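Appendix B, example 12.
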Amino acid sequence: MAAASGIRTLVAAGVAIAGALAGFLLGADINAVVVAAVAGLAAVLIAAAGEAPESLPRPPARARPEQPSVQALMDALAGPVLVTAGTRVARANAAARSLLGEHIVGQDVRIAIRHPAAAERLVGDSGDDTGSTTHLVGIGGRDQRWEMRVRPIGDGRRLVQLVDETQIHAAERMRVDFVANASHELRTPLASLRGFAETLREEAGEDPQLRDRFLGIMLAETRRMQRLIDELISLSRIEAGKFRAPDATVALDALVREVRGALVDLHGGRGADLVLEVAEVPPVMGDRAQLSQVIHNLVGNAMAYGRPGTPVRVELEAVGEMVRLQIIDQGEGIAPQHLPRLTERFYRVDAGRSRSIGGTGLGLSIVRHIVERHRGRLDITSTVGVGTTVTVLLPTANGDAVS
């Protein structure tokens, strides 16, 4: 077959050359004859090249990669996803089976998702699915919240997706509680200021002793408001920068001694109860101002809530690649049910006593955020009638963060 193709090519080339010679003999222009000959030969060669000899083997077809199954694609999704056919669960991914049970495939969807709002939605007209969502509470846990999204996918089937909104709801609740608590904390001193100011204006302004007493209360309330605002701003800044690890080194032993001097002057006679047991420790990676704030808050709390005349011990030592700071008081102690919530904003074990000593309810929350920013750990242990111990672990400049 290849030989026949070659013969045809030679014959066609000869015909092209012969035509060109005939044109020359008949008096045609030599340039036109050459062009015609070249064009004819080119056409012949192109035609010959286009004929693929049958004797050459064809390259094998590439094998197509195996396509993942629908179930494998669904299992790869992080959130629960189901496919329903009518009122039955046709498919469910691994997350859905983990949440609702391995047995749900083939079940009635009203049994698989035991929630009245879900049942009403999933057995209703599929024409109502587009663009609508349903909020479910209590699936998988009493406080868990889900957003159920349903979309028709043809042939009477629906794609059901459950989106976990538990953390979003918790964050929103914290925000609402925070605004309510902050408003309350500011409203109380404002009401006092207004009441005393009105009294001074109307009748008590002429009595020097009464006037001085009222002005002293008003001054104390303004200081309380100032402390609250300062700590709110401080907490906001710390939360905004908590994911940026500090990049400076701090000598914590020197800082503890420095803070002790300030607290002794601040607390007067109670400062004599402050006992330091500070060893020389390696420097830590930290923000000096924030670490000073941690020591001030923790030691200040111990001195405020500890029994007068009992020691408040501040211990600092190196423990492996960590530095451990402990503040130990001999106060009334804290009941176990309160310990998990002590670092919540505005949480108080005894609200009346906390306010009477000038507490804002934000100190331990600030401490927790600072310790987290420094990749450390905060632990609080307490025994009623014995006292409280607060422990802060911070990685040294050459150490690793606490896991």
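The chain has a mean pLDDT of 79. Residues 166-202 form the longest helix (37 residues).
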